[in-house]
Design brief:
Chain A is mainly alpha-helical. Chain A has ten helices and no strands. The longest helix of chain A is centred in the middle third of the chain and has 35 residues. In chain B, a hairpin with a 2-residue loop joins strand 11 and strand 12. Chain B is built from ten helices and 13 strands. The radius of gyration of chain B is 25 Å and the shape is elongated. Chain B folds into two domains: 218 residues, P-loop containing nucleotide triphosphate hydrolases (Rossmann fold), CATH 3.40.50.300; 83 residues, Alpha-Beta Plaits, CATH 3.30.70.920. By secondary structure, chain C is mostly helical. Chain C has one domain. Helices cover 75% and strands 0% of the residues of chain C. The chains are: A mainly alpha, B alpha/beta, C mainly alpha. The interface between A and B is medium-sized, with 23 and 29 residues.
Chain lengths: 259, 304, 65
């Protein structure tokens, strides 16, 4: 176990040294603040700047607090996902490509430790950033449009966080499979988009799809009740995460690390 | 006592055989050189021994150790171009490597300190690796390979990237390393092999074409050339008559009063030739012995 | 403009966040050995591209090896 922590601490130290530990949470913070603020100020700004013909009435209603929070979640679902994929895709593939993975894995390091330590460190960074962003959105939503009870906010945060965790794990999986970081990133994004599209189109059939967790989080905030597919999707996402990790380890172990 | 035993090792890449059945045993406290031209398969063999590549067939065993799978802890490996986490300091990387090799935090720190002295990196240990020169990287690479006291050190071209001074130092280091573990290093430069190794494996096109201790190889290929010039053609004719039927003379070329003899046993040939010249009172003008170098041996082995 | 001063306290966290990003990106740029593309271009991007300049640098400017 101390060996695992050695690997984990190295991952964490690396994130500190390359400032990921600072810039990723701050990026999520800006991302989370953007939508509540623009929804509040945009109508006022258009009003104030004027220049519109007399009699024009611009009626842009303020979003409801849940809508405001979910607009931020939509940001996380696009730009946030992109950032998570970009910072995760090289974790294993990059080390294999540079050859440093071979330096490390000729030491008696279990392949499972090597991969899970990276996963755990990424998980920590991802949740730290995501929580920062969500808190920012929750705060601005509360100040500008009305407060969402913290418990409900937290529940919604966890629901969507499961999907983000799945995306991160998927990226790490591809990073273990491919030697080229860009390819790992491309596959992760492509697969996420496909799952999202299919789940969106066939949402009544694929109630258990983890991609719908975003929808379920919104529905929960509006109604205060969990939609039917919520728990099956969480279960499926968890199973997929475990499955991806196990296969990442098996595939990686059978790879030849050089040549 | 053998540290590692390799039997009938083969490796193919895309159905192209690269290593065609290689067997050898490495003993404790011995330094063995794996010598061969570029492309002979040296790196492939070392990578298989380190576990980075899986043999297509054949076995690698560590006789002393119970054979439950993971033999990586017995091995220290230095790739041809060692790569590090550039953002770490030398000390951080070395201690990290030590901990991965099974040392505790404290052991790793002590051992790292020792090794920085051994490889001569004491000054630079707190610098970021991104600032290291090629020679410093090579030394850090050797240090990280040794940190967990492996039974077998595998070094892939440890000196070929170094300048003459660095090369001297690392070769000297190799001499010391074998006190602690068996060493197998690859090189395409025969002189380096000759200088520090106890045994040599000649690799050519994926096969070991010749192997043995330096002494045995020299013994086996102690063919030499004797150039002799006498006063006149008549003297030479007389001389040839006397020696041409000796066992050790393999062949000779005569050109007037000069001749070149290819002989098998230099010492015997020298004694017999000189005695003959003295007894017959032949006027000696030139007598030159040239031994075959290991280079010649290698060329001969490779060509045959 | 008075619109913003009305709630100026709201923007303080964002201004701080942006400032920290800027500083951290510059520190990293100074310390790093090589970037993808010339360093001075990244310096301009970090300083003059509002908010996303530093982020762009961290994602695309750093060499990940």
């Amino acid at each position: 176990m101390s060996l695992w922590f050695t690997l984990f601490k190295k991952e964490w130290l690396e994130m500190v040294r390359n400032f990921k530990i600072i810039w990723v949470p701050l990026t999520f913070l800006l991302l989370g603040s953007m939508d509540p603020l623009t929804s509040y100020y945009m109508p006022k700004m258009i009003d104030a700047l004027g220049g519109l013909p007399e009699g024009t009435v611009i009626e842009i209603p303020y979003p409801s607090p849940p809508d405001s929070l979910m607009m931020s979640v939509a940001q996380f679902d696009t730009i946030g996902v992109l950032i998570i994929v970009l910072i995760t895709m090289g974790l294993i593939a990059g080390e294999r490509k540079s050859g440093v993975a071979a330096m490390i894995l000729v030491k008696p390091v279990p392949f499972g430790f090597y991969i899970t330590a990276k996963w755990a460190a990424s998980l920590l960074l991802m949740w730290l950033s995501y929580i920062t962003g969500m808190l920012a959105s929750w705060y601005y939503t509360g100040v500008l449009f009305g407060w969402i009870p913290f418990g409900e906010f937290l529940t919604a945060l966890i629901l969507y966080g499961v999907w983000l965790t799945l995306i991160m794990t998927l990226t790490l999986f591809f990073s273990a499979v491919f030697k080229v970081p860009g390819l790992a990133g491309f596959c992760s994004i492509a697969l996420a988009i496909v799952i999202n599209l299919v789940s969106g189109v066939l949402s009544h059939r694929l109630k258990w799809s983890p991609a719908l967790l975003q929808t379920y989080a919104g529905e929960y905030l509006h109604s205060g009740e969990f939609s039917a597919g919520t728990f099956p999707s969480i279960l499926l996402a968890t199973a997929a995460i475990i499955f991806l990790m196990v296969f990442a380890i098996i595939i990686f172990r059978n790879k030849e690390l050089s040549g | 006592m053998s540290v590692i035993r390799v039997e009938a090792l083969k490796k193919s890449f895309k159905n192209q055989p690269v290593i065609k059945g290689v067997s050898f045993t490495l003993g404790e406290n011995r330094c063995t050189a794996l010598v061969g031209p570029n492309g002979a398969g040296k790196t492939t063999i070392l990578r298989m021994l380190s576990g980075l590549l899986k043999p297509s067939s054949g076995t690698i065993t560590f006789p002393e150790t119970s054979n439950n799978g993971d033999f990586r802890k017995f091995i220290g490996y230095l790739p041809q171009h060692p790569v590090f986490y550039e953002w770490m300091t030398g000390k951080e990387f070395l201690e990290y490597a030590g901990k991965l090799g099974g040392l505790t935090k404290e052991e790793a720190a002590v051992r790292a300190e020792e090794l920085f002295e051994t490889v001569g990196l004491g000054e630079a240990k707190k610098k970021r690796i991104s600032k290291y020169s090629g020679g410093m990287r090579q030394r850090l690479g050797i240090a990280q390979a040794m940190i967990h006291r492996p039974r077998l050190l595998l070094l892939d071209e440890p000196v070929s990237a170094l300048d003459p001074i660095g090369r001297r130092e690392v070769l000297g280091l190799l001499e010391n390393l074998k006190k602690m573990s068996a060493v197998l290093f690859s090189t395409h430069i025969l002189n380096d092999a000759e200088e520090v190794s106890d045994e040599i494996l000649f690799l050519h096109k994926g096969e070991i074409v010749e192997a043995g201790t330096m002494a045995r190889l020299r013994e086996k290929y102690r063919q030499a050339k004797i150039d002799l010039t006498l006063g006149n053609v008549k003297d030479m004719e007389l001389f040839i008559e006397q020696v041409s039927n000796k066992d050790f003379v393999q062949s000779f070329l005569v050109n007037g009063n000069a001749a070149t003899f290819f002989v098998e046993n230099v010492e015997e040939a020298k004694t017999v030739f000189l005695r003959e010249i003295l007894e017959q009172h032949l006027p000696l003008i030139k007598f030159e012995i040239s031994k075959m170098s290991l280079e010649d041996v290698f060329m001969k082995v490779v060509r045959s | 403009m008075e619109l913003f001063f009305e709630h100026y306290a709201l923007f303080i966290p964002l201004i701080i966040a942006q400032f920290v990003l800027l500083i951290v990106a510059i520190i990293d740029l100074v310390r790093i050995e090589k970037t993808n593309g010339p360093k001075w271009v990244w310096a301009l991007v970090i300083i003059f591209v509002n908010i996303i300049g530093p982020i762009l640098y961290f994602i695309f400017g750093r060499r990940h090896d």
